[in-house]
Amino acid sequence: MSNQEQLYARRMARGTLLTHLYILQDKGLCDPATPRTANRLMIDGLGASGLLPPEAMIVNSLQWLEGAGYVEVDWAMDDHTRFESVTITQKGIDLYEDKNARKREPGILLQPRR
């Protein structure tokens, strides 16, 4: 896989993950006590359904998204390789809802929406 293809795959994985986190909170599928937080079981379920990239890409994407302020991650260990839950931040919601998100954040590839 070329560097260009790897960069595209990472951007797509971040966008896919952010999209699903947005949909989970928007549809009220998260715990009402923590409406923006998806637990590990929910994310694993999406992965098992083939809706998310492989586990290694999810962890890499979460690290990047957290560094950019789009999510907050409750890491299970200090080495940031396993997580308990992920909370989409207002910044992440705003990015997802922005029709110009592709231009505003080149590190994430969000699919065009109507």
Overview of this structure, please?
With 114 residues, the protein is α+β, with helices and mostly antiparallel strands. Helix content is 52%, strand content 12%. It is built from 5 helices and 3 strands; from the N terminus they run H-E-H-H-E-E-H-H. It has a 3-stranded antiparallel β-sheet. Helix 1 (3-26) crosses helix 3 (55-68).
What is this structure, in a nutshell?
By secondary structure, the protein is an alpha+beta fold.
Give the topology, please:
Elements: H1 3-26, E1 37-39, H2 40-48, H3 55-68, E2 71-75, E3 83-88, H4 90-97, H5 101-104
Antiparallel strand pairs: 1-3, 2-3
Helix pairs in contact: 1-3
Q: Which descriptors apply to this entry?
A:
globular, alpha+beta, single chain, three-stranded antiparallel beta sheet, 52% helix, 114 residues, 5 helices
Share of residues in strands? 5-15%
Structure summary, number of beta strands: 3
Helix percentage range? 40-55%
Order of helices and strands: HEHHEEHH
Distance between the termini: 32 Å
Write down the Rg: 13 Å
What's the total helix number? 5
Low-confidence stretches: none
Largest sheet: 3 strands, antiparallel
Strand order of the largest sheet: 1-3-2
Q: What shape does the CA trace take?
A: globular
**Average pLDDT, to the nearest integer?**
92
Structural class: alpha+beta
